[in-house]
Specification:
Keywords: RNA-mediated gene silencing. The protein is of the alpha+beta class. Helix content is about 25%, strand content about 25%. It has a nine-stranded mixed β-sheet, sandwiched between helices.
């Protein structure tokens, strides 16, 4: 364990401190070890250090500061042996002889393989970015796209596997702040003052961004932006002595630096604290290169990133191969230190292509069928104009569900967009209402604490002065609705849960299975239908490419693997029930399979049965005559949460009035966003799939 005093929140500063320590004491006090460091509290070595606890002192010099005393900063480092990692448990886990995953051991090896790129590239979560990777494209409004790669060490049936994928994200362009503001606000010139709305937008975009000054020829200084001044620079003054004499920023720059400021109608950037602010004219500052833009991108920017990075499977595979060769894992000194060997070849895995289901639809009371071809089908001239929304849905029977009344749930939690630090999350749950067809769903939504993954309102008990304890919650309400619609109570539950990270699997399962159990028991004593709980993951970096590119019997028109391709060997979990299913046909780029992880299965599905059922359900999506990439109940839950958030809060980026907002404009504003309960969905809306 490592502690650094004074403490820094910057991983880069911490790494510099440890690097200096290793230079000074690596061959002596550290026993010649080459440590791997996570940038925070953890330091790992291959073998024991020659001490249990030791204190060190190093001095870093800031080359940007001329005054030597101010430029030097001393750091005290304490290294304490916190434990020793045993690879035996990892070996047992990978062989399937141990159920508990030794997460700490895997983390150590992951940190080791991330050590070299952490020094050489810009780190964003589990990805690394650099301008040396080629593409660097302007995506509009002061931002640019950098290419990079994602890297993660994960346990699989093959052993430890290194997941590598191409990635891209948005960065601030290294331009003057004036140029950024012009591009960000789509202004032609800087002659007109900024409106309050513009000022708030700029403050939100630039808060936390590092800039460097250019008004001193012999010295470049860096600052972190904390805000924007509320008044234009022409009106901005500050005290210059103890008597309270004030001077304007414009006067100060002319007297001190002989710098004639031009854009005096614009506000200044502010650094430091409100008690001791530092005012920085925008024209005297340039944005430091290599800073990621973490706020929400607009549609145009997203399109530009996708256009710049979209690659067909053959191109993407080649890019991944080139990235692996570029990284030179065989020459990585940290990997060598810890005895880690990385194979540079992609792995070949066995796969199956599931057949599409036979689709049934009704036309003038007559039942007809059609067979999808490569993930799509044509309904033109097959149905007359329907008199209602409900009759517009084609109906597909799912054979595996015909014998036992089955309800299929989809659930998701949608967090607020990036940059909204206090807005509530929105949870949505949908459930099928038309067994055995499984095509119509009712949906409910609920607000819950900011970025909380567990769904709170699946089951609830409230106290009523007259009635005492009153049972409620979304699961209970949907179970009641199913019985009202079908005349049967569900005897089997299939729960597809989206929006769960791997670290939260056990936590979410424990809480939400308990809520499902209580909701069932509240309806009827002893009512415990068997439950299958499946986590749906779309945000991962596993890509499946054809083993032979260009073969028509192995690919669709886009060059992707065929719809219905399923993989459940080699790259899946060593002991648990999971599989990758690419149910859809590719349109552009490389298809991303959906990862289904079965956390609990009281229905005792075989792998084939659950995979086929999930694939068949993907053909029942109501919006289009194509098979979709995510099982529809999970898809619908995501759409329901998104739609309700949009109707209640509005699109904050467009500034216009939105449906359901009482005519008030949804404008950018300072301060925390008010967290409020969502309006109750009316009964006549719940049953019409309002999110489609």
């Amino acid at each position: 364990m490592v502690s650094i005093n004074p403490e820094s929140k910057s991983r880069a500063v911490n790494r510099e401190v440890l690097s200096e320590l290793i230079k000074l004491h690596g061959k002596t006090s550290l026993g010649g070890k080459l440590p791997a460091y996570d940038g925070r509290k953890s330091l790992y070595t291959a073998g024991s250090l020659p001490f249990e606890s030791e204190e060190f002192s190093v001095t870093l010099v800031d080359p940007e500061k001329k005054d030597k005393e101010k430029a030097e900063r001393e750091y005290k480092i304490t290294i304490l042996i916190a434990g020793r990692t045993d690879l035996y448990h990892l070996q047992q886990f990978l062989k399937g002889r141990q159920r508990d995953m030794p997460q700490e051991t895997i983390q150590v090896l992951d940190v080791v393989l991330r050590e070299s790129p952490s020094w050489n590239y810009v780190t964003v979560s589990r990805s690394f970015f650099s301008t040396t990777f080629g593409h660097r494209g302007d995506i509009g409004e002061g931002l640019e796209c950098w290419r990079g790669y994602y890297q993660s060490l994960c346990p699989t049936q093959m052993g430890l596997s290194l997941n590598i994928d191409i990635s891209a994200t948005s960065f601030f362009k290294p331009v003057t702040v004036v140029q950024f503001v012009l591009e960000f606000l789509n202004l032609r010139d800087a002659s007109r003052p900024l409106t309050d709305r513009d000022r708030v937008k700029i403050k939100k975009a630039l808060r936390g961004v590092r800039v460097e000054t250019n008004h001193q020829e012999d010295q470049i200084r860096r600052y972190k932006i904390t805000g924007i001044t509320p008044v234009p620079m022409s009106q901005l003054t500050f005290p210059v002595d103890e008597r309270g004499t004030r001077m304007s920023v414009v006067q100060y720059f002319m007297q001190r630096y002989k710098y004639n400021l031009q854009y005096t109608s614009w506000p200044c950037l502010q650094s430091g604290s409100d008690a001791r602010p530092v005012y920085l004219p925008m024209e005297a500052c340039k944005i430091v290169e290599g800073q990621r833009y973490s706020k929400k991108l607009n549609d145009k920017q997203v399109t530009n990133i996708l256009r710049a990075t979209c690659q067909r499977p053959q191109q993407r595979e080649q890019s991944i191969r080139e990235m692996v060769l570029h990284n030179k894992y065989a020459e990585d000194k940290f990997a060598q230190e810890f005895g880690i060997n990385v194979c540079s070849d992609l792995v070949s895995v066995p796969a199956r292509v599931l057949p599409p289901p036979m689709l049934r639809y009704h036309d003038s009371g007559k039942e007809k069928t059609c067979v999808p071809s490569v993930g799509q089908w044509n309904m033109i001239n097959k149905v007359g104009r329907p008199p209602s929304i409900e009759k517009a849905f084609t109906r597909f029977g799912v054979p595996a569900l015909k014998n036992i009344p089955t309800i299929i749930f989809g659930a998701d939690v949608t967090p607020p967009p990036p940059g909204e630090d206090s807005a509530s999350s929105v949870a949505a749950v949908v459930a099928s209402m038309d067994w055995p067809e499984i095509t119509k769903y009712s949906g409910l939504v609920s607000a819950q604490p900011h970025r909380q993954e567990i769904i709170e309102n699946l089951f609830s008990v409230t106290k009523d002065p007259q009635r005492g304890n009153v049972n409620g919650g979304m699961i209970r309400e949907l179970l009641i609705a199913f019985r009202r619609k079908t005349g049967r109570r569900p005897e089997r539950i299939l729960f597809y849960r989206d929006g769960v990270s791997e670290g939260q699997f056990s936590h979410v399962l424990l809480h939400e299975m308990d809520a499902i159990r209580k909701a069932c028991a509240s309806l009827e004593e002893g009512y415990m239908p068997p439950v299958t709980f499946v986590v749906v993951q779309k945000r991962h970096h596993t890509r499946l490419c054809p083993e032979v590119h260009g073969r028509r019997d192995m690919t669709d028109k886009s060059g992707n693997i065929l719809p219905g391709t399923v993989v459940d060997l080699m790259i899946c979990h060593p002991t648990e029930f999971d599989f990758y299913l690419c149910s859809h046909a590719g349109i552009q780029g490389t298809s991303r399979p959906t990862h289904y992880h079965v956390l609990y299965d009281e229905n005792h599905f075989t792998a084939d049965a659950l995979q086929s059922l999930t694939n068949n359900l993907c053909y029942t999506y109501a919006r289009c005559t194509r098979v979709v990439s995510v099982v529809p109940p999970a898809y619908y839950a995501h759409l329901a949460a998104f739609c309700v958030r949009y109707y209640v809060e509005g699109d904050r980026s467009n500034g216009g009035s939105t449906p359901g907002s009482s005519g008030q404009a949804a404008i950018a504003r300072e301060g925390p966003v008010e967290v409020r309960q969502l309006p109750k969905i009316k009964d006549n809306v719940k049953d019409v799939m309002f999110y489609c």
